[in-house]
Specification:
elongated
C-alpha cells in the first residue's frame, strides 16, 4: 500500500521481534538504515563497588 501510493521513504519504529512486519517492509523494497536500543534504569543501585570505587578514585585526585 505504501509503495503503491508513491512512498519512497518510511520512518517507523518496529520491534525486532515483529518478524512479519520487518519481512513485509523488506519484501516491498524498504531496507533498514539504522536501529535504536532503548535502555531503562535498573531497579536499584548497581551491584558491586566498581562504580563507587571509580568515582572515589576520581575525587581522590582532585585536591
Amino acid at each position: 500500500m505504501l509503495t503503491a501510493g508513491g512512498a519512497r521513504e518510511v520512518v517507523a519504529d518496529v520491534d525486532a521481534h515483529r518478524v512479519a512486519v520487518v519481512a513485509e517492509l523488506e519484501r516491498t523494497g524498504f531496507r533498514q538504515l539504522r536501529s535504536r536500543v532503548v535502555f531503562e534504569p535498573a531497579a536499584g543501585p548497581p551491584s558491586g563497588s566498581a562504580v563507587a570505587a571509580a568515582h572515589g578514585a576520581d575525587r581522590a585526585g582532585q585536591g
